[in-house]
Amino acid sequence: MILTLAWRNIGRNRRRTFLTVSAMVVSSSLLILSLSLFSGMFSDMLASATEQYYGHVVVTADGYQQEREMFINFAPEDDFLNTLDQAPQTLGVSPRLRAFGLFSHADNSYPAELLGVDPQREEQVTTLGRMLSGGHYLLPGEFAGVVLGAVLADKLGVNPGDELVFVTQAADGSIGNALLTVSGVFRTGATGQDNTLALVSLPWLQKVMALPGRVHEIAITVTAPLEAPLLAREMAAQLPPGLEVHEWSTLLPEMREVLASYAVSRLIMALILYSAAGLGVLNTFFMAVMERTREFGILMAMGLRPMQVRLLVMTETLAMGLLSLLIGLITGGLLTLYMSRVGIDLSGYLTPITYAGGTILPRLRAEFAFDNFWIPSLCLLLICLLAGLLPANRAARLEPVRAIREE
Which of 28, 126, 165, 336 pairs with 91 at a CA distance of 20 to 30 A? Predict the structure, then answer.
């Protein structure tokens, strides 16, 4: 009986029901879209820091991450690399050797960081090969090629096909120097990579640095970057002696703080938006209860108990909340789908911003995440129940005789 009465009451004043449901639908769908845009922004920041340079998980020799000494290196065994490749959540594994030195071309000389990589493996770990503004990425077997950051290439005044001289101090104390041919130029929008980074062949850099077969790190990408800490702990138990593992949140502690603040900001945004919507719902239901005072008096005179009156109002509130939730989830999902596939490019108005080790790109792009849907859903239902509680209690406290006499 309560359900039948509640459904009839919802459909009786369609204009009021439409306005109430519309307010909750707009609130829920906009919140879902906003949270999805925040997820997209954070995903871009994390990708710019990890998928353009660090990787999600990094294996190094003990102490290298703290000291960054050229002599703290190791020789990766093929069996160990195969084990990492075959891990269930691994997407890519890339051994790397790092060096610092001086590039020269004509009258220009600038310091740079060289990253010696296996091109095929590195493309599974970083996205630099998809950000070329000229030339081509390192080819398998290309021994003396180099791919430069765009700002570094501009400073040196080089284009694809030009030659560079590289000078550094090798591990055996000699002066390492060699010629390189510019294969390509990448532009990421991240200051660190574009200004100083250069990718070269791993065998070439091992030869120049007098470190045959040695690497400084193994960069790994995984299917779920946010689960990298758990994977790193599992991997640490299986590492050979003398090696240690780091995940992105230890390599980029500022990014970890951004993630924590993002979670808090998301909750605050949900509370603010739904509090505003809740006030509207509360006002609507109070007005509805006041308009129906005589009706409630008649129902109570016919034997409906105060608890049943309270349940009737709460049922109406919950029914409209569930209807709003269903429509809001569909609308928010469609908006998120559109923004994830199309998005809005703001590069003509804004420039990339480097923050906390990552880069905030000038674009609006949404990303699907389960949290972005269940948080608005839960908040909407709680707000509906809280907004309906006060009117329900008022209706339950009515005296039948006085309520019937009210006009």
Answer: 336
